[in-house]
Structures are given as C-alpha cells and as structure tokens.
Amino acid sequence: MANKSTNSKTRAARVSIIDKKPQIHTATNPNVGDAAKSEKRKRQSDADSEAVGERSTKKNQSASAKLEMFPDNLLQAIQDAIIKLEACQGIGEACTGCRETCVDCPSRHDTKTCRACIVVKHVNHPFHSLQKWCSGHFEKHSLYELGFSLNLGHSGTPCPLNKNPPVDSVIVHVNGIHRSRILYCLCDRWQQRANWKVLQLVEHQLFPATSNAPQTAFTFSVLKDFHRHSLCSKSSAYDYCKALRSHTNAAFPQLVPDRYREFMLVMRFWRVLALLRHAGVEHKIELILDHRRSGSIAVWCPACPEIGFNLDPEVLSHIYSLILSLDGNFRLQLKKKNGDPDDRPLCRGNGYFVEDTAYRDYLRKSGKAEEVSLCSKLKAVRNQDRAKFKDTEVSGVLAAQCRHLMYLPQGLGLEGLRHQWILVTYDVWCQYHINFEKRFATFPGWEKKFVPEAPKVFRGAVPKMHIHGHNSKCQLEHSLVYQKYSGMTYGEGIESAWSEQNHGHRHDTLDDFNGFWNWTKLIQLSLALLKSYRKYKEQLASHKEDLAKLASLASPELFSEWKRIYDTSRNCEVFATKDTAPTQQDKYEILVGKENSEYGEAGFLCRGLEMEEKLLRVHNKPEKSRADRNTTTDLFVQLFHWRSQQVALYPQLDPLLPIIDEDNVFDTKLHLPSAFSGDDRLRLHLTGAADAEKELRLGLAHDLLRQLKLEIHYWNSVAHPIIQKSQKKKKKLVEAELLKNSRLDNIKGKQLGIMNRYNQNRTALISLGCNVKEAGLEKLTSDQLWGKNPFQPRKQGDSDRRDPWFWAIGKPGGISSDSWNAEDQRVRWSREKALVERLTEELDILKEEFRRTEVSFTRMAEVWRELARRNSAKPGYLEYANRHSTMYSMLAEDCREKREAINSALIHINTHDLEDHRQLTKVSFQ
C-alpha cells in the first residue's frame, strides 16, 4: 500500500508541475567559467527583451484582448494568403518539365564550405541548423550568427526600397527556436494594404504572434506538425514547446526564448482556419448544400441518411433510420477560475457545440427540475461523490454521435426536422423519455424550427452495456435487443476525454478534435461497413440454424402457439419468464434503495463479484491462454481500481490487503467480507457489508441456476436432431456421436464452468452464515447437469426418472414440470427469433449505408468541382477545390469496390417469417 500511495503522490506532483506556468531558471552549472556565465546572462537578457512589444501589461494578457488584435478582416486576409499558396504562378507554362513544387525542401549541405558560401546556399533554407568546427569538435552554429537576413518579397534578395536595418525576430520551426533577421518589402503593392507585415509573413509561410509590429512568428511546418501530433496523440502544447526548446539547446534549454503563450494563441487561429478551409466555408459551400447549417465546419457522416443529399425525401423505411447515441461526460468539466470572461469561441457555434449565448439563456429560463427516479441506475448515479461538481463553471458535456461513431453537428434539424425514423440511445432513457415531449415543447421557437410531428418520430433505448445496470423492467422495455428495426446497434461507442481551458478556447479545441475524430471515421467507413457486413452475415447463418433447432423441438401445435404469442404481443413480456426466484439485479435494487452513502457499497460489492468470476474463468483456462499479456494487463488495471475503492470504503482493511502483483495477478485474493470469519467481520466493522454481500450472492446463485438450465436446454436442442437421426443405432454409437460433436462439447464446458462458479458462490454464502438448505441451494455435481427434453416422446420409466433438484426452483405454483420447461423453451425461442430479426435488419441497414456512403462521396466530389469553377478567379481557391474533389472521388471509388465485394458474395436470406420487416413504407414507430 505504501508503494501505491507513493505512486499516487508522484502522479499528483507531476500533474501539478505540468499545470504550472513555465518558469525560466537562472541557476548555472558551477563548472561553467565566468565568461560563459556572462555570455549566458547576455543571451538571457536578449531573450527577455525580444518579447517587449508582444507582452505588455497584465491587463492586456487576457485571451480576448489578444483575439482583438486579429479582427475578422485580417483573419480573412490570412486565410486568402494561405489558400493562395496552393497555386504556383507560372508553373507548367514556360518549361514543360516544371510540373511539381517543393513543400519543404529536405536537402542539406553535404560538404564543408566557407561562411559566405553557406549563407548563399541557405537563401531558401533559412531555418536549417548549422555546425562549425571548433576546438577539435563540431558545435552548434546558426545563420543568425553569420549575419544572415530573411529577405521578403524578392526571391531572397533585399528589397531595393527598404534601407532600414532588418528586424530581429524569433522564428519557431520544427527543428527548434531560431533567432532571425527579417527585412520586409516596401514596394507599393504592400504599402497600400492594411497589416502588410502580417500578410508578407503569411505569404512566406510564417504566422505572426501579433498583428502589431510582429517579432515572433511560427512556420507553417511547425503548426502543421503540432496540429497532427495533437490530434493523433493528444500531446499538449506545453510539452511540444518544451521539446522545441530542448531541441534547440539540450544542455541549457532555459536560455532559449519561451514562446509557449504565443504558440497557444497562434494555434488557436490555425485550428479554426484549417476547419473553415476543409469544410468549404471559404468557398461558399452553403450555396450548394443549402440544406445544411450556413457556416458549418462539421464533418458529416456519409452513411447516415441526409435528406436532399443521399436520400430521396419521399422514401420511408426502417433502413433509412437515423440512429443517434447521447452521453453525458462529467469528466469534461470547466472549473471556475480567474480566466478571461470575454474569451469567445472563434467557431461561433458552427461546429459541434451549440451557440453559447442562446444555450445559456435557455438554461437560465429552464431552471432546475428534480424528478422522481424510477430506476436504481439513477439512484446509484445520484449517490456518487457530488464534491466533484463543486466550483465548476461547466459540470460536463452532452455529446451526440451517430451509429458510425461520428459526432453530430450542433445544427442538426434546426432548419426543419424531416426524418421520419429516429432512434436515440441514452444511458438513462428509461427516465428521460417520460417527459420527452414536454421538454420538446419548451424548446425556444420549436414550432418554426421543427415539423409538428417531430417529438413522435423519436424512439429510444438504453445502450447494450449500460442496460445491465438497470432494473429488470428496464432491461426488457428499453433494450436494443428487443427494439424492432434497431439492427445490431450497440450504442456504447461514445467516449471522450480532453483537458481544461478557457471557455472559448475550449470550444474551439473540442470542435477541432471532434472534427478530426469524424474525419478518421469517415476515411475508414467503407472498410468498417464491409467488416460489419461479413461478421453479421456469418452470425445470421449461425443463429438461424439455432432458431430452427429450437423450433424443431416443439410439436407443430405448440410451435404455432409460440408464433401466435410472439406476433400478437405488444410489449417485451414475451421475452421474460415467470420465474419467481430473485435475481442479483433484484437484490441490488433493494440495496441501492436503502443506501444513504455517497460511495455506493452495493455497486462496489457487485463489481467484486464480477472480479471473482473473472479470476475463476481465467483459472479454468489452459496455461497458454492465461499468459496473454493484454488479458493480464486489463485484469490488473480493473483489480487496481477496485482495490483503490475498497481502501476508500473500508480504510481499516488497508494494513491487511496485499499489493496486487501484476506478475501473479491471477492469484489475487479479493478479501470480500465472506473471506473473513464472523469474529473478524465484527472486529473490522464489516457486518453491514457482509449482509449486503449475502443478499447479492443469493441473487447470483439463482442467476447461475437459470444460466445452467438454459445451457441444458441448448444442449437438448443441439443433441435432439442427432438422436432423431440415430434412432436405429445402438445406444453406445449414439453416445459416441454426441461426444464427437464440438458444439455439444463447448456447451458441456460452459455447464461445468457454471457449476464451479455456483459451488464457489455457495461456499461463500455458508461463510456469511446463510442457511443454504433452507434457501434450497444444494451443491451441484457433474452428474446433475441434465434435464428431460419435454418435446421428446415419453419413454417407459420416465415417470420414475425425476429432474435434478434445481429445475423446481423458481417454478410458479400450479404448473407441471414439463409445462414449466416448455415455457423456458418458448422464451428462449422468442429471444433467438428477436436476435435473428435484429441481424436481418442490420444487413438491410448496412447495404443501404453502403449505398448512401458511395452517393455522399460522389456528391461531395461534384460539390468541390463546382466550387472550383465558382472560385477560379481567386488564387489558390481553384487548386484547393480540385484537390478535395479528387480526394472524394478516390473515396467514392474505394467504397464502390468494397460494395461490389459484398454484392458478389451475398448469401440468400430466407425472410418468410420476417416479411413485415420489408413492408415498412406505411408503418410508423408508434
């Protein structure tokens, strides 16, 4: 535990250091001579003085004040200059061989040369690092020290009209931070323009840190490099700038000018300008795609239905459903701090965040509404530590994604919601849907922005992992498995985590990250659709076979009754058994309802039982599969977090708990209350926890017996056809054929695993003082893992052959054992039929998504071609649009090839039982 505490403190210290404002230390190495110290102080003074003019009083250090130095007209001029670089005047005209241009010349001097020659050779490479031979070795040198000047506007030669000395500046490049001299051009074409110094620098791929007498600039190369690192690896600007200073002078990085704050400002502009270019906003793309929000910088999903773009508005079917996932991320907070209250997002609500002023006004008018919780999931959430929301400006962020895991633009539907099929997944949909229409009606101006039927086209469900934390009723009514027309939608892919910034800066950064996330999904979408189609096609074939086997067990009359119940049922009760035994979820809900603690003891014990099952499952695996490194690491991380919560809940156990050893993680002892004797539990104040564990284990015991009965039913359904075909064979031959069947062998392995888990749980119940005999929980043995097949013809002696004891547990009164087993089989058939329906729907949806994706890419290629034509008079705009048109054409061709790959290998899907799924033109979700 000491090690764990130390590691925690170390992490905390490291975070503290990173969050602090970087300081320049003046301490020197005692071995350095006085001359070196003097030179060092001089260089330090120079570095500090160069910031004069860029860093004024503290009052002017606010983000909003810095933003004001770059008004909209200047940003537009910078954007035009950046796009202009796409073109190269005269290329391909005078010389037929000049058809390419260099982006970032990698060549370096490869021979020794004199000072004058090396300056001449680097007219077009002003930021290369040099070395000179001194005292028997090479040492770092710079063009600045050789008198080099970066001359703007005349192909590397000084402007004949500028007789002033060059301006000393600091240039930040990918290979370090450089001192440089800049000589501006004073020709008439520049003197007549506002902010001419800024635009000259931008034309030479240098972005200044200020519009007023710039003395610091960043090369486009360094901005692109950090932008890519930031998006792909989430590296911070602070660490990147620190690395640049170390790259410049590894021994004395503190002597290198610190341009972190300037870098943050410039990157903020760079991100937004890149988003605007990529989205086609500068090319006026909204004039062509007029159904989208004007000025939108979002990356739209090509596979989702977009009426007027990849979908005919008159076509209605479940395959044109818009499927969304919502999730609140409470780690993405913004603390109240002494930031700049006037800091504003540069994206202005055109990305993935709603417009801030209108949203805050809506929240203020809506107020807070406390609602009665009907589900244990919400009670558990509200019982968490509320201290983490203290002193927060923003307590979290609600995000929306489509089923292809792409974030939605905030303007979805604001110009008229025309979708007729919308499915929403949300962690607490069971509670949220109750007042959904009422909330919809309070949306400001909803009658003008949405069609009147908008609230009625929505359906909802709880994601497939979160549903297990809800009560039994929710697990039936709000499960995606039982929602018609939902396919194999999962709903759990929406996760994110970013760092904290000022309010406006935060929105711009998150818009950038969300856009990049969407872009990575977009370029991989065709391959993802192909993989999903192949996977679900195989699953459909397998589950259709299982469904047929389950149906073959019943007589024609009984099977007709099953179909009648399934087809006429209007709710999810058809998927539930009438089992009267309590479940672990039932016990958990009771415990959560009694809890007053903010820590969630019931949830902790439930996770402990999950950890216990995982450890047992690993122990039952062969030694080779246990050695998988990913399995070991994942289990270690889960156990580490669970043990941390254990210490927080029961600090008295801290001295008794061993450190979790990653090398022997499978031998970890959990030390749940059942692991202690009654006297020790009393001494350690664990009696309350022991009572809670006992209740949860009682529910778990019945859950395990239900699983065992399902596996036995499954074994019967697989074995039945083999027995039917082998009626004339001898009994030994039939048994040998059953043993050779790999599926039956797999089922038997699952049965043995359930038996071991049940017996382990039963032993823990005895330790907790439970009277297992009174509870009807006998010990399981391998010779009890069977049950009569109620659909096989009765044989002589069947009346004397009684099912094992556990078949009677949970059976309602007044029903025979055969009827009870038949009811279990009916429920299993109903669930399997629902799964086959979802898989069939999924294949239909995927084929349509393939078509929409290809149409979307093709349409975007056409849009960019038209933008090229409309913007041909503006330098660089034509070339930029042509490049994007080519890119989308390539994506469309790639999608077409993958779509043809699935069409050439389609399996025949017999949908006779699912014909209603094809006739959906006039069917609504209600």
Automatic annotation (TrEMBL):
Top-rank taxon:
Eukaryota
Q: Which UniProt keywords apply?
A: Coiled coil
Q: To which species is this protein native?
A: Leucocoprinus birnbaumii
Q: Where is the composition biased (Polar residues)?
A: 1-10
Q: Which residues form a coiled coil?
A: 829-856
Q: Where is the CxC2-like cysteine cluster KDZ transposase-associated domain?
A: 143-250
| Entry keyword Coiled coil | yes
Write out the ranges of the annotated region (Disordered).
Answer: 1-65
TM regions (residue ranges): none
Question: What's the protein called, per UniProt?
Answer: CxC2-like cysteine cluster KDZ transposase-associated domain-containing protein
InterPro entries in the record: CxC2_KDZ-assoc (IPR041457), KDZ (IPR040521)
Pfam families this protein is in? CxC2 (PF18803), KDZ (PF18758)
